[in-house]
Amino acid sequence: MELRAQRPYVIPESLDYPALCFSRDRSLVVARDASDLTRCNAVAFWKNRYFEDLLIVDAAGRRFRVESAQPDPEVGAMDQYVARLLNRRFRVNLRLRPEGRMALIEIKRTAIEWIEKAPDFWSASRELSEWSRQITSCRSVVGLARLFD
């Protein structure tokens, strides 16, 4: 019988905050702490599937991928219906897989790519060239988080 090594998973409380969250819908959100990262509303969780393949980069430049997300506590069918109807916020248990470190230049490049793939959204607050200039001038992940917070 062969024993398989279990993957090391990380809990949100062990990340260095603030953390940048890059979602598959090209939104970029700042999580100020573990509580911020693990709270979500019903529309984002069930309809938009916000946590699906979510990339998280913490303040130390460590990269994580959300491998699974479950409501805490588990939500039955009736509770899920009510939560969706009222778009309630709730806590989510996350299982994070570490993916190594990202250099600051790589994090900046990713942020610029996210902005370029959703130009209508980002240009509503400032010109895309201004976003790019400000991202490029950031000296840390914390600086990037301030820019997007």
Describe what this molecule looks like in 3D.
The structure is a single chain. The protein is α+β, with helices and mostly antiparallel strands and 149 residues long. The chain has one domain (12-148). It has helices at residues 34-37, 42-47, 77-86, 104-116, 119-123, 128-137, 141-148; strands at residues 19-22, 28-31, 39-41, 55-57, 62-72, 89-101. Strands 2-1-4-5-6-3 form a 6-stranded antiparallel beta sheet. A hairpin with a 5-residue loop joins β1 (19-22) and β2.
Tell me the strand order in the biggest sheet. Answer: 2-1-4-5-6-3
| Individual helix count | 7
- Rounded to the nearest angstrom, the distance between the terminal CA atoms is 51 Å
Summarize model confidence as the mean pLDDT: 88
Question: Topology as H/E string?
Answer: EEHEHEEHEHHHH
> How many distinct folded domains?
1
Q: Quaternary arrangement of the chains shown?
A: single chain
Largest sheet: 6 strands, antiparallel
Report the radius of gyration as a whole number of Å.
17 Å
Q: Specify the helix fraction band.
A: 25-40%
- Residue fraction in strands: 25-35%
